[in-house]
Amino acid sequence: MTQFVYLSNALSGTISRYKLHQGELTLLGETEVGYMVMPMAVSPCQNYLYAAIHSEPFHLKQLRIDPQTGDLTLEGETPVNEGLVSLTTDKNNQWLLASSFDQHNVVAKPMTETGHFTDKTVTIQHSSACHTCLFSPDDKWMVATEFGVDKILVYPRPNSEGMVDKPVASYQFAKDAGPRHIAFSPCGVFLYVVTEMDATVVTLTFESETGQLEFVAESPAIPREALGLERGLPPAQKVANDVPRVWAADIHITRNGRFIYVSERTLSVITCLEVDKDTHIPYYRHHHQVEKQPRSFIISPDDQYILASGELADELGAYSIDANTGQLSHVSAAPCGEGAGWVSMTDYRLS
Length: 351
What we know:
Layout: E1 2-9, E2 14-21, E3 24-32, E4 37-42, E5 48-53, E6 59-65, E7 72-79, E8 86-89, E9 95-100, E10 105-110, E11 122-125, E12 130-135, E13 141-146, E14 151-156, E15 169-172, E16 179-184, E17 190-195, E18 200-206, E19 213-220, E20 248-253, E21 259-264, E22 269-275, E23 282-289, E24 297-299, E25 305-308, E26 315-321, E27 328-335, E28 340-345
Antiparallel strand pairs: 1-2, 1-28, 2-3, 4-5, 5-6, 6-7, 8-9, 9-10, 10-11, 12-13, 13-14, 14-15, 16-17, 17-18, 18-19, 20-21, 21-22, 22-23, 24-25, 25-26, 26-27
């Protein structure tokens, strides 16, 4: 089976296109998009790839995906007022959801029935940097991390008039923990949040009827002290030639809910945590060397592979997942551009 994989290269201003066939990555070509192309999202219908340009003038691009070749064709673009660091959609592609780290807000953009941009934009102002925002699995809620004040907030999804009510719930993390990215359990009952400076995975229950959150546990994502890593520092406090510090980034969970993976950039590893089937609390199992400074990675929809990029790497790596242990094995790699950031993948497979 063949799937298409896309990788945004911020400094090259391109999106690399690949095919993945039985673990073998093949570079199909490069699509010129724009300097500092960063977060991306594939539409639920798999027809479009949305990409955010993180350089002025800030804007979003819509690229049509050719289902036979994986080629990308620019079909639309729209300006935005801020640089965006995450992109996602709801299940029906009615809303494109993004977060702004520098401008401290969440951006929700209504889409047309055909998946195109509209002229409207809903902005939700935060008190500090917002790292990511996701729709809940039932599409009723929006969940956003406030990195700068160590909080996570739950908002109702925009109503029919495009208005968003105040948050219905929040959770306060430890000071300077740096809540970054989010993964929902397949059942939608649990929410896993990776903290950038602590390198922990915080497990919360999520009540879909009310949007309420409740703390369950905090689990180390990596044995940082044993590996010689100090606790991380907020960006404003980092200094040159400092001691090695933990720098966690991305988090994903397999569709069967058994394994959680977290990327850590200082050591350039992806760690594997196994989720206890009774408590749903993850615990650290092992870690694996990957591309240098891995900011983004993705798990294939069939739970067979991880595709990992590195901001300081010149290749995209493919790793097979052992279904019993979660161990990763490097199976292939293909060239990429400079400043590789976000990995996206189609959810359909070609024979």
